[in-house]
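Renewal narrative, Specific Aim 1. Our central claim is that a sequence can be written position by position from structural information alone. The example that follows is taken directly from our test logs and has not been curated for this report. It begins with the C-alpha cells describing the chain, in the order in which they were read.
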C-alpha cells in the first residue's frame, strides 16, 4: 500500500489531478455504454426476459448507480442525448465513445445540426461549460438577427386593454376562412381545448415520472437534487407563460416556487410549482 503521507503537497496534488482525470474519462466511457445496455434490455423484454436481471440488477438505474455511481438524472440524460443525435453521427459517436460528456453535449443540442456537427464538436471539446453556454447564446443571437430579416410582419389587435399579436399570414388565412363562412371561432376553441388537454396529459405524465424518480432515489439511496429538470420547467412555462403567476402581477417570472416546499416534498412536482417574479 502506498504511503500518501510521505508525498509532498505538490506530489499529492499531481496524483489527485491525474487520477481524477482518469476517473472522469472512465465514467464518460461507461456512460457511453448505457444506450446499448438499454437497447439490449428492451430487446430482452420483448422476448419475455431481462438482460439486466440475469446479471443481478432490477433496472438500468440500479445497474449504473452500483457500477459507476450515476444518478437517474444522469442516466436519462445519456439515453436522451443518444436519441437526439441519431441524425448527427459525429456527435453521437463522441457521446458513445466517451470523448465528451453528455452534460456538455446537452448544452449544444438546441443548435446542433447535421451540417454544423463537426464545428460544434470542436467547441464542445475545447470550451469549458461556462464558455460553451456563452457560445450557444451568441450563436442563437446571431441566427435570430439573420432570421429577423425574413420575419413576417406582425399585426396587433387590441382586446380588453391587451395587445394580441398576429402574424400577417395568420391573419390573412383566418380572414379567408371567415369569408368562406367557416366557423373560425369554433376552430380556435377546438384548438385551445386540444392544447389544454395535451398540456394536462403531459403534466400528469411528468408528475408521475417525478414521483417514480423519488421512489427510485429512495431505493438506491440517492438524495433529491434541487435542480428542476428541463422537462418540468417546460411544462410550467407552457402553462403559465413568462409572467409571474401571482394574481394581477405582470412582472417577468424570475424563479419557480415550490408551493409545498422542496425540503419537505423532495420532489419537483409540476402541480406544486409556480413561476414568481
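The sequence written for that structure reads:
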Amino acid at each position: 500500500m502506498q504511503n500518501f503521507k510521505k508525498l509532498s503537497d505538490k506530489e499529492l496534488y499531481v496524483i489527485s489531478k491525474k487520477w481524477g482525470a482518469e476517473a472522469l474519462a472512465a465514467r464518460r466511457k461507461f456512460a457511453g455504454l448505457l444506450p446499448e445496455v438499454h437497447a439490449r434490455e428492451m430487446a430482452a423484454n420483448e422476448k419475455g426476459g431481462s438482460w439486466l436481471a440475469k446479471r443481478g440488477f432490477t433496472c438500468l438505474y440500479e445497474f449504473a448507480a452500483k457500477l459507476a455511481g450515476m444518478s437517474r438524472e444522469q442516466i436519462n440524460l445519456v439515453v436522451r442525448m443518444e436519441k437526439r443525435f441519431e441524425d448527427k453521427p459525429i456527435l453521437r459517436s463522441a457521446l458513445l465513445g466517451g470523448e465528451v460528456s453528455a452534460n456538455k453535449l446537452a448544452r449544444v443540442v438546441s443548435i446542433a445540426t447535421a451540417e454544423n456537427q463537426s464545428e460544434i464538436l470542436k467547441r464542445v471539446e475545447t470550451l469549458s461549460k461556462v464558455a460553451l453556454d456563452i457560445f450557444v447564446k451568441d450563436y442563437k443571437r446571431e441566427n435570430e438577427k439573420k432570421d429577423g430579416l425574413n420575419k413576417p410582419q406582425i399585426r396587433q389587435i387590441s382586446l380588453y386593454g391587451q395587445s394580441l399579436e398576429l402574424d400577417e399570414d395568420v391573419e390573412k388565412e383566418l380572414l379567408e376562412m371567415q369569408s368562406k363562412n367557416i366557423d373560425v371561432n369554433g376552430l380556435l376553441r377546438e384548438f385551445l381545448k386540444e392544447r389544454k388537454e395535451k398540456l394536462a396529459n403531459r403534466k400528469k405524465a411528468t408528475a408521475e415520472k417525478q414521483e417514480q424518480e423519488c421512489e427510485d432515489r429512495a431505493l438506491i439511496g440517492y438524495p433529491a437534487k434541487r435542480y428542476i429538470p428541463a422537462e418540468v420547467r417546460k411544462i410550467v412555462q407552457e402553462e403559465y407563460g413568462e409572467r409571474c403567476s401571482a394574481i394581477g402581477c405582470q412582472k417577468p417570472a424570475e424563479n419557480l416556487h415550490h408551493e409545498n416546499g422542496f425540503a419537505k416534498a423532495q420532489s419537483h412536482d409540476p402541480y406544486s410549482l409556480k413561476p414568481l417574479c
